[in-house]
Amino acid sequence: MLSTVALIPTAAPAHADEDTLASTQVADPAGLCGNGAATFDDIVTNAATAVRTVVPAGQQAAFDQQVNDFRQTIAQVHVHRRGLPMDPTGTGDRLEFLDDPIVSYLVNDLDAIRTGRIDQTVSLSTITVSDVIEVFILGTRIVKIPTQLAFSLIPTVGFILKPIVGAMFTGVKSLARSIQAQLARTCTAPTAYEKLQLEPLPDEHVAVPQPLLDLANQLTKADGTCTPLAELKTSDLVERTRNFLTRTAGLPVDPAAVNANADALQGFLHDNRVAHSVLMRRIEQLGPLVNAMDYGPLTFLANLGFDIYEGKGLDTVPLSDVKVENAFDMITLTLDTASLLMTVGSTIAGFTGVASTITTPLGIAQTLAFAPTTYGMPILRGVMQSMCGAA
Fold first, then answer.
1. Which of 152, 267, 303, 341 could be a cystine partner for 158, CB 3.0 to 4.6 Å?
2. What is the 3-state secondary structure (H, E, C) of 255-316?
């Protein structure tokens, strides 16, 4: 499919005495190009048009009928478009910057569930090659996690193989993105067949587990008009909780007591301060190495270095200014530090004569125990940075 679409020229010379796909004139290039990658139906008609040039004249009518029958068969296959991963390129939001297909998939699916668009169906004929590549990118991102985990379990060399494997998968994603960009710039040439006229398809209900539905109803996709979860301050959380408890009918609470407790808590958060280094910068602001490794102690040290350079090493900030993202980073730092200390302890034990038959299983168990932190935290952070709490 990729070769069929990618090799279609954007401008081909016309020869009146040749009836080939390459000689077909593009009557309106501005209207045909730049509208995204070709769909399944475009691929079918382009391929059929090329084959049609070698079909005897007396058999072309039957060939055309077979092509149209196949196109109609494909058109009858329905898919839930919002259930497929979506390319974040061009959105201009946090999803595009992160370009993490798992994060994009989770955010878009939660948003589709909340808005009811998860039930919308489209014909398979309208799915583009770019959409198929996006499924491939998501698949490789999912496979990357167990692959990296497996290589990290290899004694002595696992810490070297893990980043190498990660870089390989990153390269595959970059290549796929390049193909997507090229397909989007490729002109869809006219064919011997008319464009399918498809009627809008009725929605087909998707059974969503109730916990997932409840979660989706509490979140909305960040569009620049709301504050993402990661950027909510502790003072904001107190106010959101206060408003929920005092404005939700039927709750067995005393609004006056809730307001009094909320005011006292806000005063405590405002009057008590913590070190400025707790408010860590986002990893991409600390340089490419820190961003690539996303490792708690390294992130903390890099952030502390920036604070010292800017003269903020001894500064403090009120607890009310601590964001959800800051607290999340501290949790990550704590878990990563615990893992690091266990690794150091295992290494020292090896130097003191403890057999590798003991230290190696302990190291493997440690890697497995902290795997949710290593591979899950970046995904959760990306979701929090890309979604807001529903009003």
1. 152
2. HHHHHHHHHHHHHHHHHCEEEHHHCCCCHHHHCHHHHHHCCHHHHHHHHHHHHHHCCCCCCE
Rounded Cα–Cα distance for residues 216 and 223 (Å): 16
Q: What is the pLDDT of residue 35?
A: 56
Residue bearing the bigger pLDDT, 149 or 354: 149
Task: State the pTM of this model.
Answer: 0.81
Handedness of CA 137, 140, 145, 151 (dihedral sign): negative
Per-chain mean pLDDT for the chain: 85
pLDDT tens-place string over residues 278-306: 899 999 899 888 888 888 899 999 999 99
Q: What string of H, E and C letters represents the secondary structure of the chain? A: CHHHHHCCCCCCCCCCCCCCHHHCCCCCHHHHCCCCCCEHHHHHHHHHHHHHCCCCHHHHHHHHHHHHHHHHHHHCCEEEHHHCCCCCCCCCCHHHHHCCHHHHHHHHHHHHHHHCHHHCEEEHHHCEHHHHHHHHHHHHHHHHHHHHHHHHCCCCCHHHHHHHHHHHHHHHHHHHHHHHHHHHHCCCCCCCCCCCCCCCCCCCCCCCCHHHHHHHHCEEECCCCCCEHHHCEHHHHHHHHHHHHHHCCCCCCCHHHHHHHHHHHHHHHHHCEEEHHHCCCCHHHHCHHHHHHCCHHHHHHHHHHHHHHCCCCCCEEEHHHCEHHHHHHHHHHHHHHHHHHHHHHHHHHHHCCCCHHHHHHHHHHHHHHCHHHHHHHHHHHHHHHHEEECC
